[in-house]
Design brief:
The structure holds 3 protein chains of 3 kinds. By secondary structure, chain B is mainly α. Helix content of chain B is 70%, strand content 3%. Chain B has a single domain, classed as Orthogonal Bundle (ABC transporter involved in vitamin B12 uptake, BtuC), CATH 1.10.3470. Chain C has a single domain, classed as ABC transporter involved in vitamin B12 uptake, BtuC (Orthogonal Bundle). Helices cover 74% and strands 2% of the residues of chain C. Chain C has helices spanning 3-22, 29-54, 62-79, 85-108, 114-133, 145-152, 164-182, 184-194, 196-201, 206-232, 244-254, 266-285, 293-320; strands spanning 154-157, 160-163. A two-stranded antiparallel ribbon of chain C has the order 1-2. In chain C, a hairpin with a 2-residue loop joins strand 1 (154-157) and strand 2. Chain C starts with a helix and ends with a helix. Classes of the chains: A alpha/beta, B mainly alpha, C mainly alpha.
């Protein structure tokens, strides 16, 4: 570890939307090193990556490249300085071919004219090194996510990047694809590149990294060599204390009648799915990103439509036409992507908290504003949401409080079935516990809850029963009492329990 | 910028004072009141446009809906009574607006392109139908602009009543709430169970119905309808809405803002009229007001959020 | 050639055949002449609109740019009747370029949406047109023969004349096609249109791309303005180029430039213009009154949009399967 730092940050502070995200970060990335940046959701991992890649500008502090202080003005500037950021979702141009994607903005030229033949030749050389099955002429819009990820790697290789930052790159890859990616990372390391991996997958940290930096709430809490560290130690560094894994028990001896039953459902992204959710029961849906869980939830809520199979509510077969219909059936849904699908960012908190109960609180279409206000206040209160006043734009709240607003809005509907997709993503530990206890109370009051989560401790803490999905199918089911993280992960990766 | 309405309010007073000082003809209050009949028609269009822009869309075809309705109404109504004629005009307008909304929502096409096409289509139908002719309005529906109620000409009363009614719909009814949500984040609106398509189509249809009333007022005022009437009126309607503080990106705006902005536009156009500024320059000045007011909003927003870094969205989906 | 271009070509041919069946005289040199006369202006302006639509923008002010360029050059001819033809085109192009840069600056730096900006400058430029000429027409006496002759003479093959203007416009088309394939700039335009945020993260400056596209649209509009003088021999501040934006946008949309951005071909744009020109002449030959023109242009745009939406739907289904 005596190699000099290729990238160094000193007392780096970053603010987003007026909130401090990174506080006084000193970070060093050395040549020939794989450095994991890890921490809980919202700890500031990705932000650190994006500052180094020129996407965000620091509020104060300095960045040194090869020992010299630099300002990384823009993503283009970062590329010019040899810094490559590989994004979680591949950055591609679906209308262009692979060669044009790789050399976008800097196509090889011959006498000022773009030389397509040369671009394809060079692209094919790089693609061959990566060992992929498509060539430079392929249409990028038709490639799989993993293949598109490879196009991004090829782009960085063509830029002769010396600093590589992988931002949750493995999130949408299969285990085999992850293994291939790690081989490439080893090669880069051997060539003397400096590599940072932003991840919250601990197995990955121990598999590939030499050094790990742990962030918590925007500050750096530790930097350790990986061989000095055990997994439980790393976890406690991330959370700051031992995770409380006490199962939150149901107040009832057994769940009630079957509220939702799905039989052999086939639709976009999932096949042959059969599940049941009972009243007074919290059912977990585990699996990797891309296993079809979100797709299933979207179909249940009427956003997409299954092509075959049966959905029964209280024993009656129904076809959910659209979200309004789903709501009329007593469904409520907390979507996975809060920013894209959950929030009305510029509108006030009162609006956001009461958006789903407008019709219920109106007379021939005229809003009962007093009642709406009361409802919003009471649900925000019962969730202990922190805010100034109802007229404040919801975008000013922290992630956790935004999520409480969205969950609260769904509960105000008084649903029979609550579908939650990653309900505590980006929510801090304390708030998470509150959300969990609140959900259990809702279940005890008779609601049926279906909860998608990639956070296994969360599933083990809150649910009564867990289904596991893999590549669009349900591959296993178990009572939470019999479940362990290992069992679930083995199923999620396509193995046997 | 919590209340952007004060800008048109202050500007109205300033423009009023300016022309009061500049022109003797402007210092005639009865004239000022009676002259509102023409811009009241544009005002009716601006009311509907407020709904459409708040819901994150735009309708460039409003002028063409006005003209086609104005040309069709006399043909269809013949010598029927005024209420029948009004009903026909309202239905025609609502259908045309509704068609815009249906194409935009069902084919998932940008509203500015769809309504650019229907702008040509609706006016094209009027031209093809009448060619060099004009449509004669039945005598019994003529002269609405010369009747008055409480000292105000009827078209002004109609405009104010609808501004109040639609303003209440926008700010006090479920539909209005939906439109704000749809204009802010249409995907979140879908997940929240808003009937996004239906609400959007309704906004377009309501706007069309109001244009129908405007068309009736215009027919009644002019006595004849020609396919080349009201050039550039869509620009005027959009300008009124945007200068009233409604964000062109959707999700933000008030009916009070539109009303105050209408007053500003009224003083500006009347002032230009009494100062004998040519029609072609009047339109130019309106175009300038449009650009300046959107620019002003952008500046105000960027000042308000001046310390925030640019939110760079990382989406691979175009 | 892709399916879209082949399809367009087929429609053009079918339309010609249908018109000939209706009226034997459709394919006579005179009609072909008038089809060809029709194209240069449209094609020139459409070439500029093409990259604008690729980056998901729009330039509605194009008709007013054409008008202002035509009138300004006409006014200049009043005081300098001896200006050479290349000089006239250079002046027109410069005027257009300046107007285009103004559009670009408002859209890029003032961040005003393109629709709002260009609908505003549509009236602004029209107002400027009146100011430049004081409301007077540019009479035929002011427009020199050396300019008008370009529209009416050229290379004649068997009574059909391909005018110098058309040759010039086609030349511009060929240059654009070459640039679209071989210039870094157009590469950036397509990348930006395909995925704007990814383009930014790959170091392409969104400001430069947008500025350049609107400037280019203005530039070609300015050239088309001089062509207007050449083609019609006179110009009035009220009508010169007025409503032309519809034709230009229609021809680009029908030419298969994807309205959701990122793709399109110059050949498609040329064929789109040809289709509109044929339709226009067909209307005359079939004795459809001129009053139907606006309707036809509007329907053309709408049909192009619906084809776009339909093909998107088909693609989505294909991807899901």
């Amino acid at each position: 570890m005596a190699a000099p730092a290729l990238v160094r940050t000193e007392n780096l502070n970053v603010e987003l939307g007026g909130l401090p995200i990174l506080k006084g970060i000193d970070f060093e990335l050395r040549a020939g090193e794989v450095h994991a940046i890890t921490g809980e959701n919202g700890a500031g991992k990705s932000t650190l990556a994006k500052v180094i890649a020129g996407i965000y500008q620091p509020a104060s502090g300095s960045i040194f490249l090869d020992g010299a202080a630099v300002t990384i003005k823009s993503p283009g500037d970062a590329i010019a300085k040899g810094i490559a950021l590989i994004h979680q979702e591949p950055l591609i141009f679906p209308d262009l071919d692979v060669a044009s994607n790789i050399f976008v903005g800097r196509m090889p030229r011959k006498a000022t004219m773009v030389d397509h033949a040369e671009a394809r030749r060079r692209a094919d050389i790089i693609l061959k090194q990566l060992g992929v099955s498509f060539d430079a002429r392929s249409d990028v819009g038709r490639l799989s996510i993993a293949e598109q990820q490879m196009v991004e790697l090829a782009t960085a290789m063509s830029e002769d990047a010396i600093v590589w930052i992988f931002d949750e790159t493995t999130a949408s890859l299969t285990p085999k694809e992850v293994a291939e990616l790690f081989l490439i990372i080893q090669e880069l390391k051997a060539k003397g590149c400096a590599i940072a991996i932003v991840t919250h997958h601990l197995d990955e940290v121990f598999e590939i990294a030499d050094t790990v930096t742990v962030l918590r709430d925007g500050t750096k809490v530790a930097e350790r060599a990986i061989h000095d560290l055990t997994q439980p130690e790393l976890v406690s560094l991330m959370v700051g204390r031992e995770i409380e894994q006490q199962h939150i028990k149901s107040a009832h001896a057994s769940p009630g009648a079957v509220m939702l039953s799905v039989e052999n459902l086939v639709g976009p992204g999932y096949q042959g799915v059969s599940i049941e959710v009972r009243e007074r029961e919290i059912v977990g849906l585990a699996g990797l990103v891309g296993a079809g869980r979100t797709e299933l939830a979207r179909s249940l809520f009427g956003i997409t439509h299954p092509s075959s199979g049966v959905v029964k509510v209280d024993g009656n077969a129904i076809h959910v036409k659209n979200p309004q219909h789903a709501q009329a059936l007593g469904f409520a849904m907390v979507p996975e992507d809060r920013q894209q699908h959950g929030l009305f960012p510029n509108l006030d908190i009162g609006y956001n908290a009461s958006a789903t109960i407008l019709r219920a609180n109106s007379t021939v279409g005229w809003l009962n504003q007093g009642k709406l206000r009361q409802a919003a206040l009471s649900i925000l209160e019962s969730f202990r949401t922190v805010y100034r006043n109802l007229a404040q734009p919801v975008s000013q709240l922290s992630g956790g409080n935004q999520q409480k607003t969205v969950i609260g809005r769904c509960l105000l509907q008084n649903p029979k079935l609550l579908i939650l997709d990653e309900p505590t993503r980006g929510v801090d530990v304390g708030a998470r516990r509150e959300v969990h206890q609140f959900l259990r109370k809702q279940a005890d009051d008779g609601k049926a809850i279906l909860m998608i989560s990639s956070d296994l401790p969360e599933l083990l803490t809150v649910t009564d029963r867990i289904y596991v999905m893999h590549q669009g199918r349900i591959v296993g089911q178990m009572p939470t009492g019999e479940a362990t993280e290992e069992k679930i992960m083995a199923l999620a990766f396509g193995g046997k329990a | 910028m919590k209340r952007p309405e004060w800008i048109p309010a202050i500007l109205s007073i300033a423009v009023f004072a300016l022309f009061w000082y500049l022109s003797k003809d402007f210092r005639d209050i009865p004239y000022l009141i009676s002259n509102t009949t023409i811009l009241a028609e544009t005002g009716l269009m601006a009311i509907g446009m407020t709904l459409i822009i708040i819901a994150g869309n735009i309708d460039l075809s409003v002028g063409s809906i006005l003209v086609l309705t104005a040309c069709l109404m006399p043909k269809l109504a013949g010598h029927a009574s005024a209420p029948v004629a009004i009903l026909i005009a309202v239905l025609l307008g609502a259908v045309m607006g509704g068609i815009n909304g249906i194409i935009i929502t069902k084919a998932k096409l940008p509203s500015f392109l769809v309504t650019l096409a229907t702008m040509a289509i609706y006016r094209g139908i009027a031209k093809a139908m009448l060619q060099a002719d004009s449509a004669e309005v039945a005598p019994n529906v003529k002269g609405l602009d010369r009747l008055s109620l409480l000292g105000m000409p009827y078209p002004l009363v109609i405009f104010l009543v609808f501004a109040l009614v639609i303003g209440l719909v926008l700010h006090r009814k479920v539909l209005g709430r939906w439109l704000f949500g749809i204009g802010t984040n249409s995907e979140a609106a879908r997940y929240a169970g808003f009937p996004v398509d239906r609400a959007t189509i309704t906004a377009f249809a309501v706007s069309g119905a109001l244009i129908g009333i405007a068309a009736f007022c215009m027919d009644s005022r002019l006595g004849v309808a020609r396919p080349d009437m009201a050039p550039g009126i869509e620009l005027q309607a959009i300008t009124i809405v945007v200068a009233g503080g409604t964000a062109i990106s959707g999700g933000k705006g008030t009916m009070v803002g539109t009303l105050l902005s209408w007053l500003l536009m009224y003083f500006v156009t009347t002032g230009m009229g009494v100062m004998n500024i040519k029609a072609e320059y009047q339109l130019t000045i309106i175009g300038l007001i449009l650009i300046v007011s959107v620019f002003g909003q952008q500046v105000a927003t960027s000042i308000a959020s001046h310390r925030l870094p640019k939110p760079t969205k990382l989406s691979t989906k175009p | 050639m892709k399916w879209r271009e082949l399809g367009l070509l087929a429609v053009v041919i079918v339309l010609c055949v249908a018109c000939t069946m209706k009226d034997r005289n459709f394919i006579d040199p005179h009609n072909i002449d008038s089809i060809l006369l029709w194209m240069p202006l449209l094609l020139t302006a459409a070439i500029g609109q093409f990259p604008v639509i690729v980056i998901r923008g729009i330039d509605i002010s194009i008709g007013s740019i054409i008008g202002l360029s035509a009138i300004a050059v006409g006014v200049l001819l009043k005081s300098h009747p001896d200006l050479g033809v290349p000089m006239l085109f250079a002046i027109g192009a410069t005027i257009g370029l300046i107007l285009g840069i103004l559009n670009g600056a408002l859209i890029t730096y003032a961040k005003i949406p393109a629709v709002v900006t260009t609908i505003g400058t549509l009236t602004l430029f029209r107002g400027l047109t009146y100011m430049v000429c004081g409301g007077d027409q540019i009479d035929a006496s002011l427009v020199p023969d050396r300019l008008t002759v370009l529209a009416h003479s050229g290379i004649t093959v068997r009574e059909v004349t391909v005018s110098w203007l058309l040759i010039f416009a086609l030349l511009l088309g060929i240059i654009t096609a070459l640039l679209a394939r071989f210039s870094q700039f157009f590469g950036n335009v397509f990348a930006y249109g395909s995925n704007p945020s990814a383009a930014y993260l790959r170091g392409i400056s969104p400001n430069k791309v947008q500025m350049a596209c609107y400037a280019l649209s203005g530039l070609t509009g300015g050239i088309a303005g001089v062509m207007f003088l050449s083609r019609f021999g006179n110009a009035s501040p009220a009508s010169a180029g007025s409503g032309f934006e519809l034709l230009v946008i229609a021809s680009v949309a029908i030419g298969g430039v994807k309205i959701t951005g990122g793709s399109g071909s110059t050949l498609g744009v040329v064929l789109g213009c040809a289709l509109l020109a044929v339709i226009n002449v067909a209307l005359v030959v079939l004795k459809v009154p001129a009053d139907y023109q606006t309707l036809v242009y509007g329907l053309t745009i709408l049909i192009a949009l619906l084809i776009d939406a339909l093909s998107r739907g088909v693609k989505k289904q294909g991807a899901a399967a």
